[in-house]
Design goal:
This protein is an alpha+beta fold and about 200 residues long. Helices cover about 55% and strands about 10% of the residues. β3 and β4 form a beta hairpin. The two termini are about 20 Å apart.
């Protein structure tokens, strides 16, 4: 049994998607980041950085924070969605890290500045432009491919949780990336992914 500490954010949902797609036995402990539960001392023992997601694998005794590390751990545990050959695995790994270091942080910042009542034009422009650039990179990578690294993998699970926010970003440069939009639809059509996305804090 794995306990997953999540909230309804892209980083939380990517772990839910992985658990569902891999068919692992899990339970969710929702950590309300709006009320500061991520700073509770008991939670900080599991996730010292005070962020979600985190997991505890009760079978192995391993606890992890950071969504990228969690996805890699779950892929290794299940033997699924990590790439069949060493070459494939490194392709998956590079695109997983691309999401972790690029698309996720940039979209997060773009959304933050977009939502400010007192606008900061430089910040909003900077992060919206970088998000649009990264969508262009993803759109090119998906040309002629169903999934980012060829076969469906943890790179897709990680990235779709963020890229799926495109319609709310109010930037046509994102939603006109046709390969990305088709890929999002392809991901959401997967029953396990659709179920994970439907989960919400009670």
């Amino acid at each position: 049994m794995i306990t997953a500490y999540l909230w309804g954010t892209p980083n939380g949902y990517k772990v839910a998607i992985a658990l569902e797609e891999m068919g692992l036995d899990y339970e969710i402990n929702w950590v309300n980041i709006g009320t500061g539960q991520q700073h509770d001392p008991a939670y900080l023992k599991i996730a010292p950085n005070g962020k979600i997601p985190a997991i505890v694998d009760h079978e192995t005794g391993i606890s992890l924070m950071e969504s990228g590390a969690i996805l890699q751990y779950l892929a290794e545990k299940s033997g699924k969605f990590r790439g069949e050959t060493p070459q494939d695995r490194w392709k998956v790994t590079q695109w997983l890290h691309w999401q972790m270091g690029g698309l996720g942080p940039m979209m997060g910042q773009a959304n933050h500045f977009r939502g400010l009542k007192e606008k900061v034009p430089y910040g909003e422009t900077r992060y919206k432009n970088e998000t649009a650039r990264l969508f262009g990179v993803l759109d090119k990578q998906l040309e002629g491919r169903d999934y980012i690294a060829g076969e469906y993998s943890i790179a897709d699970m990680a990235t779709v949780a963020w890229a799926g926010m495109a319609p709310m970003m109010e930037d046509d440069r994102l939603t006109t990336c046709n390969n990305v939009m088709a890929w999002i639809a392809r991901n959401v059509a997967r029953p396990a992914t659709a179920h994970a996305i439907s989960l919400s804090p009670s």
